[in-house]
Amino acid sequence: MSLVRRTFDAFLGFLFPWNFLLVSALCLPKTILRLLRERKFAELLSPSRLQEAWFSDFWGGIAGPNIRRDAAVRVIPLLQGRATKGAVVDEQVAPALAGTVVEVGAGSGLWVDMYKDIAEVRAEESDGAARRRKVGSSAAVDGPITRVYGIEPNVNQHPALRQAIANAGLEDVYRIVPVGIEDLDDATRWDGLVEKGSVDCIVSILCLCSIPDPEKNIRELYQYLKKGGRWYIYEHVRCENTWYMKAYQRFLNVFWPHFIGGCLLCRQTEKTLREAGPWEKIDVAQPVAEPWYQAVPHRLGVFTK
């Protein structure tokens, strides 16, 4: 690749976050007009509720589907057990998603259909498990996805989330949890209960950047995992490579949370997860294809309790 091409690619990489912010800003007037038409004046007069409505429109209708399309090539293989050291591989190298699952930040249901897709793949794997073991496969085949609890306290997201559940035919499997992480085991706050130590897998996709009190809530979620349970992550994290990328990301972060629903670019999410409790195995890394000029670097992989 020529120097001119590399320079141009880096320029586009630096520019992309600002384009993202611009698209969000252009969505705000549409949200205000919608709330006026629907006579939701209380939301208009509440900064926090207006931001929730704005983010729901931006993420559910514009940004989310595009990110879902681009990230699926990493996330779906990850949940199928086909990711290691930040790379997607052809063969299953780790256990796939199974059992009781907690999805953090379910949002408008952009990822709901993947549970059906993975369940179908798992059924095919179960049929061929004996044959694969004969040829030396070490990947575990645990069982089907039996229950998904989707944590989403933003009620503006619930209509789209319910529709996504219905479209995937998962009404008997997927349960919306309309409260925050701190109330997951509190049956007085919602009409359900998840007991600590009862969860096989946790899934967090681009959501830990905006949860409140991340250290506290990540430690709380850790307690829900069974021994041997797995936490699958695809999250963006703080830049840690060069001083100028660190400075650039911190400058972006002055504006970012106000336009992207409270999302914080500079959280040390991987570090917080590592310190949540003892892990038997950690296979987490930056995706191998991400360039040096990535202002929003990610981590991909699995923490095993």
What would you say this structure looks like, in words?
- The chain has a seven-stranded mixed sheet.
- It is globular and about 50 Å long.
- The chain has a single domain (3-304), classed as Vaccinia Virus protein VP39 (Rossmann fold), CATH 3.40.50.150.
- Mean pLDDT is 90; it is low at 129-141.
- The chain has helices spanning 3-37, 41-45, 47-79, 112-127, 129-134, 158-168, 214-224, 243-259, 269-274; strands spanning 83-84, 87-88, 99-104, 145-151, 174-177, 199-205, 225-236, 281-285, 298-304.
- A hairpin with a 2-residue loop joins strand 1 (83-84) and strand 2 (87-88).
- The relative contact order is 0.14.
- Helix 1 packs across helix 3 (47-79) and helix 1 (3-37) runs parallel beside helix 8 (243-259).
- It is built from nine helices and nine strands.
- With 305 residues, it is an alpha/beta fold.
Any chance you could write out the topology, listing elements then pairs?
Layout: H1 3-37, H2 41-45, H3 47-79, E1 83-84, E2 87-88, E3 99-104, H4 112-127, H5 129-134, E4 145-151, H6 158-168, E5 174-177, E6 199-205, H7 214-224, E7 225-236, H8 243-259, H9 269-274, E8 281-285, E9 298-304
Parallel strand pairs: 3-4, 3-6, 4-5, 6-7
Antiparallel strand pairs: 1-2, 7-9, 8-9
Helix pairs in contact: 1-3, 1-8
Question: Over the alpha carbons, how many angstroms does the gyration radius reach?
Answer: 20 Å
CATH topological fold name: Rossmann fold
What would the average pLDDT be, to the nearest integer?
Answer: 90
Percent helix:
40-55%
How far is the first residue's CA from the last residue's CA? 42 Å
